[in-house]
Amino acid sequence: MRAVSTVLDVAVFLLLVSAAVGMLVLAEPPEQTDSRADETAETLASSTLAVEYDLQGETRRAHGTAAELLARAAVANATIEGTQLSPKSGDFSARVNAATSARLVSPNRTQIVARWVPYRGGPVQGQIAVGPAPPDGRDVNSATVAVTVPVRDSRARAVNQSAAGYDSVAHVVATAVADGLLPDNAVDASLFRNSPTTVLTTRRYETLAEETGTTVRGPLDSGAVGVAHDRIVAALSRTFAADMRERFDTPAAAAETVRTGTVRLTVRRWEA
Questions:
Q1: Could you give the CA distance from residue 70 to residue 93 in angstroms, rounded to a whole number?
Q2: How far apart are the first and last CA of the chain?
Q3: What is the spatial distance between Cα 111 and Cα 127, in angstroms, rounded to a whole number?
Q4: Alpha-carbon distance 218 to 102, whole Å?
Q5: Which pLDDT band holds residue 271 (cuts at 50, 70, 90)?
Q6: Cα–Cα distance measured from residue 91 to residue 31, given in angstroms and rounded to the nearest whole number
Q7: What is the pTM of this model?
Protein backbone atom coordinates (compact mmCIF):
# COMPACT_ATOMS: atom_id res chain seq x y z
CA MET A 1 0.00 0.00 0.00
CA ARG A 2 1.35 3.43 -0.88
CA ALA A 3 2.28 5.63 2.03
CA VAL A 4 1.70 8.77 0.02
CA SER A 5 -1.60 10.60 0.04
CA THR A 6 -4.00 9.43 -2.67
CA VAL A 7 -5.88 12.71 -2.48
CA LEU A 8 -3.43 13.92 -5.10
CA ASP A 9 -0.14 13.07 -6.71
CA VAL A 10 1.87 15.79 -5.00
CA ALA A 11 4.74 15.45 -7.42
CA VAL A 12 2.78 16.66 -10.41
CA PHE A 13 -0.71 17.21 -9.06
CA LEU A 14 -2.51 14.45 -10.91
CA LEU A 15 -5.70 12.68 -9.96
CA LEU A 16 -6.70 10.89 -13.16
CA VAL A 17 -4.38 8.05 -14.05
CA SER A 18 -4.95 5.78 -17.03
CA ALA A 19 -3.32 2.95 -18.90
CA ALA A 20 -2.81 5.16 -21.92
CA VAL A 21 0.44 4.76 -23.81
CA GLY A 22 2.30 7.74 -25.25
CA MET A 23 0.51 10.94 -26.03
CA LEU A 24 -2.81 10.58 -27.81
CA VAL A 25 -6.22 12.11 -28.33
CA LEU A 26 -9.10 10.04 -26.99
CA ALA A 27 -12.00 12.14 -28.22
CA GLU A 28 -12.59 14.27 -31.27
CA PRO A 29 -12.84 17.99 -30.44
CA PRO A 30 -15.48 20.25 -31.95
CA GLU A 31 -14.49 21.94 -35.19
CA GLN A 32 -12.71 25.27 -34.74
CA THR A 33 -12.87 28.34 -36.89
CA ASP A 34 -9.68 30.26 -37.48
CA SER A 35 -9.76 33.06 -34.91
CA ARG A 36 -12.40 32.57 -32.21
CA ALA A 37 -10.86 32.28 -28.78
CA ASP A 38 -14.10 31.05 -27.25
CA GLU A 39 -14.21 28.12 -29.67
CA THR A 40 -10.64 27.23 -28.76
CA ALA A 41 -11.61 27.35 -25.10
CA GLU A 42 -14.51 24.99 -25.87
CA THR A 43 -12.09 22.63 -27.59
CA LEU A 44 -9.84 22.61 -24.53
CA ALA A 45 -12.81 21.84 -22.30
CA SER A 46 -14.07 18.97 -24.46
CA SER A 47 -10.96 17.34 -25.98
CA THR A 48 -9.77 14.42 -23.89
CA LEU A 49 -6.02 13.83 -23.82
CA ALA A 50 -3.73 11.22 -22.32
CA VAL A 51 -0.07 11.92 -21.62
CA GLU A 52 2.78 9.68 -20.61
CA TYR A 53 5.60 11.38 -18.74
CA ASP A 54 8.71 10.63 -16.72
CA LEU A 55 8.86 11.18 -12.98
CA GLN A 56 12.44 10.63 -11.81
CA GLY A 57 12.88 7.50 -13.87
CA GLU A 58 9.35 6.16 -13.43
CA THR A 59 6.78 6.29 -16.21
CA ARG A 60 3.47 7.84 -15.19
CA ARG A 61 0.27 8.34 -17.19
CA ALA A 62 -2.55 10.83 -16.78
CA HIS A 63 -5.67 11.67 -18.73
CA GLY A 64 -8.40 14.27 -18.67
CA THR A 65 -9.61 17.13 -20.79
CA ALA A 66 -6.96 19.47 -22.15
CA ALA A 67 -8.27 22.16 -19.80
CA GLU A 68 -8.00 19.84 -16.79
CA LEU A 69 -4.45 18.80 -17.62
CA LEU A 70 -3.43 22.42 -18.16
CA ALA A 71 -4.95 23.32 -14.79
CA ARG A 72 -3.09 20.51 -13.05
CA ALA A 73 0.13 21.53 -14.76
CA ALA A 74 -0.34 25.08 -13.49
CA VAL A 75 -0.58 23.78 -9.92
CA ALA A 76 2.32 21.36 -10.51
CA ASN A 77 4.39 24.42 -11.50
CA ALA A 78 3.62 26.17 -8.21
CA THR A 79 6.18 28.66 -6.93
CA ILE A 80 6.56 30.65 -3.73
CA GLU A 81 8.11 34.06 -4.17
CA GLY A 82 9.24 32.85 -7.60
CA THR A 83 11.00 29.73 -6.30
CA GLN A 84 9.85 26.50 -7.95
CA LEU A 85 8.48 23.93 -5.50
CA SER A 86 9.01 20.88 -7.72
CA PRO A 87 11.82 21.65 -10.17
CA LYS A 88 11.98 18.05 -11.41
CA SER A 89 8.32 17.72 -12.37
CA GLY A 90 8.81 19.62 -15.63
CA ASP A 91 8.35 16.62 -17.94
CA PHE A 92 4.65 16.50 -17.12
CA SER A 93 4.20 20.17 -17.99
CA ALA A 94 6.21 19.76 -21.19
CA ARG A 95 4.07 16.80 -22.30
CA VAL A 96 0.84 18.65 -21.52
CA ASN A 97 2.17 21.66 -23.42
CA ALA A 98 3.00 19.57 -26.49
CA ALA A 99 -0.28 17.64 -26.44
CA THR A 100 -2.30 20.83 -26.12
CA SER A 101 -0.40 22.57 -28.91
CA ALA A 102 -1.12 19.60 -31.18
CA ARG A 103 -4.87 20.16 -30.70
CA LEU A 104 -4.79 23.79 -31.89
CA VAL A 105 -5.78 24.80 -35.41
CA SER A 106 -3.19 27.58 -35.51
CA PRO A 107 -0.69 27.03 -32.68
CA ASN A 108 1.52 29.84 -34.00
CA ARG A 109 -1.39 32.29 -33.60
CA THR A 110 -2.78 31.06 -30.29
CA GLN A 111 -1.62 31.50 -26.73
CA ILE A 112 -3.09 29.69 -23.74
CA VAL A 113 -2.14 30.66 -20.20
CA ALA A 114 -3.37 28.69 -17.19
CA ARG A 115 -2.74 30.39 -13.84
CA TRP A 116 -3.36 29.21 -10.30
CA VAL A 117 -3.41 32.09 -7.81
CA PRO A 118 -4.82 31.05 -4.38
CA TYR A 119 -5.59 34.70 -3.67
CA ARG A 120 -4.92 37.76 -5.81
CA GLY A 121 -1.25 38.68 -5.97
CA GLY A 122 -0.21 36.21 -3.28
CA PRO A 123 3.30 34.75 -3.02
CA VAL A 124 2.19 31.23 -4.03
CA GLN A 125 1.25 30.93 -7.70
CA GLY A 126 1.50 28.46 -10.56
CA GLN A 127 1.36 28.87 -14.32
CA ILE A 128 1.78 27.13 -17.65
CA ALA A 129 1.81 28.91 -21.01
CA VAL A 130 1.26 27.27 -24.40
CA GLY A 131 2.13 29.18 -27.56
CA PRO A 132 3.71 32.58 -28.25
CA ALA A 133 2.54 35.95 -27.02
CA PRO A 134 0.56 37.97 -29.58
CA PRO A 135 2.71 40.29 -31.72
CA ASP A 136 2.40 44.00 -31.08
CA GLY A 137 -0.31 45.77 -33.03
CA ARG A 138 -2.47 42.72 -33.72
CA ASP A 139 -6.18 42.53 -32.93
CA VAL A 140 -6.51 39.83 -30.30
CA ASN A 141 -9.63 37.81 -29.55
CA SER A 142 -9.64 36.43 -25.99
CA ALA A 143 -11.72 34.18 -23.79
CA THR A 144 -11.30 33.19 -20.14
CA VAL A 145 -12.71 30.16 -18.34
CA ALA A 146 -12.38 28.83 -14.79
CA VAL A 147 -11.22 25.24 -14.34
CA THR A 148 -11.67 23.42 -11.04
CA VAL A 149 -8.63 21.72 -9.52
CA PRO A 150 -8.49 19.32 -6.57
CA VAL A 151 -7.51 21.96 -4.04
CA ARG A 152 -10.17 22.86 -1.49
CA ASP A 153 -12.31 25.78 -2.62
CA SER A 154 -11.95 28.01 0.42
CA ARG A 155 -13.39 31.34 -0.74
CA ALA A 156 -16.69 31.00 1.15
CA ARG A 157 -14.91 30.02 4.35
CA ALA A 158 -12.42 32.87 3.97
CA VAL A 159 -15.28 35.35 3.57
CA ASN A 160 -17.00 33.91 6.64
CA GLN A 161 -13.79 34.22 8.66
CA SER A 162 -12.94 37.73 7.49
CA ALA A 163 -14.65 39.38 10.47
CA ALA A 164 -12.00 37.75 12.67
CA GLY A 165 -9.19 39.53 10.83
CA TYR A 166 -6.35 38.97 8.39
CA ASP A 167 -4.87 36.11 10.39
CA SER A 168 -8.06 34.08 10.11
CA VAL A 169 -8.38 34.63 6.36
CA ALA A 170 -4.73 33.78 5.87
CA HIS A 171 -5.06 30.57 7.90
CA VAL A 172 -7.98 29.40 5.74
CA VAL A 173 -5.97 29.95 2.56
CA ALA A 174 -2.79 28.45 4.02
CA THR A 175 -4.62 25.29 5.07
CA ALA A 176 -6.11 24.79 1.61
CA VAL A 177 -2.77 25.42 -0.10
CA ALA A 178 -0.83 23.09 2.20
CA ASP A 179 -3.45 20.35 1.98
CA GLY A 180 -3.41 20.66 -1.82
CA LEU A 181 0.34 20.68 -2.33
CA LEU A 182 1.49 18.32 0.43
CA PRO A 183 0.55 14.90 1.83
CA ASP A 184 -2.06 14.69 4.53
CA ASN A 185 -1.18 14.24 8.17
CA ALA A 186 -1.56 10.45 8.08
CA VAL A 187 1.31 9.97 5.62
CA ASP A 188 4.53 8.43 6.88
CA ALA A 189 7.03 9.62 4.29
CA SER A 190 9.92 7.90 6.06
CA LEU A 191 8.64 4.48 4.94
CA PHE A 192 8.97 5.31 1.26
CA ARG A 193 11.79 7.84 1.30
CA ASN A 194 13.22 6.64 -2.02
CA SER A 195 10.02 6.76 -4.07
CA PRO A 196 9.87 9.51 -6.74
CA THR A 197 6.74 11.01 -5.25
CA THR A 198 8.18 11.16 -1.74
CA VAL A 199 11.46 12.66 -2.95
CA LEU A 200 9.62 15.47 -4.71
CA THR A 201 7.17 15.87 -1.84
CA THR A 202 10.07 16.28 0.58
CA ARG A 203 11.50 18.93 -1.71
CA ARG A 204 8.18 20.79 -1.62
CA TYR A 205 8.16 20.71 2.16
CA GLU A 206 11.74 21.97 2.35
CA THR A 207 11.23 24.76 -0.20
CA LEU A 208 8.08 26.01 1.51
CA ALA A 209 9.88 25.89 4.86
CA GLU A 210 12.91 27.78 3.55
CA GLU A 211 10.80 30.50 1.95
CA THR A 212 8.57 31.00 5.00
CA GLY A 213 11.21 30.94 7.74
CA THR A 214 10.48 27.59 9.36
CA THR A 215 12.10 24.14 9.45
CA VAL A 216 10.73 20.67 8.70
CA ARG A 217 13.88 18.55 8.39
CA GLY A 218 13.63 17.05 11.89
CA PRO A 219 9.97 15.98 11.61
CA LEU A 220 10.48 14.61 8.09
CA ASP A 221 13.57 12.64 9.11
CA SER A 222 11.62 11.00 11.94
CA GLY A 223 8.51 10.40 9.81
CA ALA A 224 6.41 12.94 11.74
CA VAL A 225 4.82 14.31 8.57
CA GLY A 226 1.85 15.70 10.49
CA VAL A 227 4.17 17.93 12.51
CA ALA A 228 5.89 19.12 9.33
CA HIS A 229 2.51 19.79 7.73
CA ASP A 230 1.34 21.86 10.70
CA ARG A 231 4.55 23.89 10.64
CA ILE A 232 4.03 24.69 6.96
CA VAL A 233 0.43 25.76 7.58
CA ALA A 234 1.52 28.05 10.42
CA ALA A 235 4.37 29.55 8.40
CA LEU A 236 2.21 30.07 5.31
CA SER A 237 -0.45 31.68 7.50
CA ARG A 238 2.07 34.22 8.80
CA THR A 239 3.38 34.89 5.29
CA PHE A 240 -0.08 35.31 3.79
CA ALA A 241 -1.33 37.50 6.65
CA ALA A 242 1.62 39.89 6.33
CA ASP A 243 1.10 40.09 2.57
CA MET A 244 -2.66 40.66 2.92
CA ARG A 245 -2.18 43.47 5.47
CA GLU A 246 0.17 45.22 3.09
CA ARG A 247 -1.96 44.94 -0.05
CA PHE A 248 -5.63 44.84 1.00
CA ASP A 249 -7.56 47.52 2.86
CA THR A 250 -9.60 45.00 4.85
CA PRO A 251 -9.63 41.27 5.57
CA ALA A 252 -12.93 41.07 3.68
CA ALA A 253 -11.31 42.57 0.59
CA ALA A 254 -8.59 39.91 0.74
CA ALA A 255 -11.13 37.13 1.26
CA GLU A 256 -13.12 38.15 -1.81
CA THR A 257 -10.10 37.37 -4.01
CA VAL A 258 -9.55 33.82 -2.72
CA ARG A 259 -9.65 31.23 -5.52
CA THR A 260 -7.76 28.25 -4.10
CA GLY A 261 -9.81 25.66 -5.99
CA THR A 262 -9.75 27.31 -9.40
CA VAL A 263 -7.31 27.81 -12.23
CA ARG A 264 -7.99 30.70 -14.60
CA LEU A 265 -7.42 29.66 -18.22
CA THR A 266 -7.08 32.46 -20.78
CA VAL A 267 -7.06 31.87 -24.54
CA ARG A 268 -5.84 34.53 -26.96
CA ARG A 269 -6.02 34.22 -30.75
CA TRP A 270 -5.11 36.61 -33.54
CA GLU A 271 -5.10 36.78 -37.34
CA ALA A 272 -1.99 36.28 -39.42
A1: 8
A2: 54
A3: 13
A4: 46
A5: confident
A6: 29
A7: 0.84
